[in-house]
Amino acid sequence: MAREETSQLFDMRIVILIFLWLMKGAECKKASEDREFSLQTGGSVTIPCHYDSKYTKHKKFWCYKAKAVFNFCSILAYANDTKGNLSVIDHPDQSLFTVTMRDLQSKDTGFYWCAVEIEGIFLMDEKEMFYMTIQSVRDLSVVNSSVTGQEGGNISVQCFYSSGYKNKLKQWCRYKDERCYTVGKTDTSQNASVQISDDEHKSFSVVMTGLTESDSGWYWCSVGDLQVPVQLTVTVTETKPVVTTEAGYKKETQYGYLVVWLPAVVLLLVIVAAIATVILKKKHNQNKSQVGDNEASNTENWLSSSTLDPWTEVFYRSEITPTATALWPVSVEDSVTYSSELRQVRQRL
Asked: 59-75 pLDDT, tens per residue?
C-alpha cells in the first residue's frame, strides 16, 4: 500500500513539473514588458526583433496566437521567408531580424512573438511579445516610419496621438538599449542631442541634432502603453582627411594626403613639362643655326680649297656651230655654256 502511495506521489510530481514547464510559456500581458501597437486597417508595419549575437546561426521565426500563450502559437514564417503579405528578413550583422506585415485587417488583431529557436527539451526559446490592435483609426502614428540624416546633421520625427492619450506620458525610446527620452527634457544619445516637445493637442515632435553613425537604429514613439516603430539611418561622409590620435595630435589619413597634395603635384608636373618644352625648342633652334653655318662654311672651304684656276675657262659642253656662209669667224667663247658655279667664282674674283 505504501509503495502504491509513493508511486502516485511521484507521478503527481511529474505532472506538476510538466504543468509548471508548460506555464513558463504562458504570457501575462503587461505594458511594462510588452509592445502594444495601434495599426490602421489596410496599412502595414515593420517590426524589429533584436537577439543576442550568440544566436546568429539559430532559426528565427514570427508566430501568432489570439491568446497570450506562446507554447501554442502558430509559426507564420521563418527568417528570410515571404508568405503572402508577410516577410521576415534576418540581419545578422545587426543582431536583429525584421517582420513586415502588409494589408492589415481587423482579424489580425492579437498576440505575436519574435522568437529565436533554442534546441533542447527543457530549454525555452528566446522571445519577445507584441500585441496589435487593427482598427480604422489609429491611436498613435508617425508621418514617416523611416528617416535618414547625415552625420553631424539633425532629424525631426512627428508622432500623432488620439485625444484619449492627450494626458499620457510621451517618450522617444531607443529599442536596442531601452533608453527613453521624455517630453520637456533635453538629453544626449551618444553624441546626439535629443529634445521632445508636445503641442498638448494631437502630436509631439522629436528633434535629434549632432547625429553620429552610432545613432542609427530602431526607436519607438511612445504614448502611454502604445508604441510605433521608427527606423533611423545616419549616413557618413566618405572623406575624413583628419583623425585624432590618442596623444591628441592631428594627422592626415592617406586619403587626406591625396586630396591635399594631388593638385600641387599636377601643377608641378605641368611646370616641369613647360620648362622642358622651352629648353628642347631652344636647343633645336641652336642646332638648326649651327647646321646652316656649317653648310656655308663647307661651301667656302670647298671653294677656297679648289685647285681650279679662276681664269681657266671651264664649261660643261661647247656648242660650236660653224656656219658655212658666215661672213666673220665665230668666237669659241660666244658659243660656250659655262658652269653656274664658275660664273659665281669669277664674279667674286
From this structure: 999 999 888 888 889 99
One-character DSSP codes across 259-281: HHHHHHHHHHHHHHHHHHHHHHH
Each residue of 6-61: pLDDT tens digit?
Answer: 555 545 555 444 444 444 443 333 333 578 999 999 999 999 999 999 999 999 99
Q: What is the mean pLDDT of residues 224-235?
A: 95
In 3-state terms, what secondary structure has residue 282? Answer: helix
- Number of H-type helices and E-type strands within the chain: 3, 23
Exposure letters 132-165 (e unless 16+ CB within 10 A, then b): bebeeebbbbbeeeebebebeeebebebbbbeeb
Burial of 104 (0-12, 13-18, 19+ CB in 10 A): buried
How far apart, in Å, are the Cα atoms of 84 and each of 2, 38, 76, 81, 145? 60, 22, 10, 10, 22
Q: Which of 56-60, 138-142, 269-273 has the lowest mean pLDDT?
A: 269-273
pTM of the model: 0.59
The x, y and z cell numbers of residue 345, run together, are 667664282
Rg (CA), the chain: 50
> Within the chain, where are the H helices?
2-23, 254-304, 340-348
Please give the grid coordinates belonging to residue 277.
Answer: 618644352
Residue that is written with C-alpha cell 531601452 in the block: 178
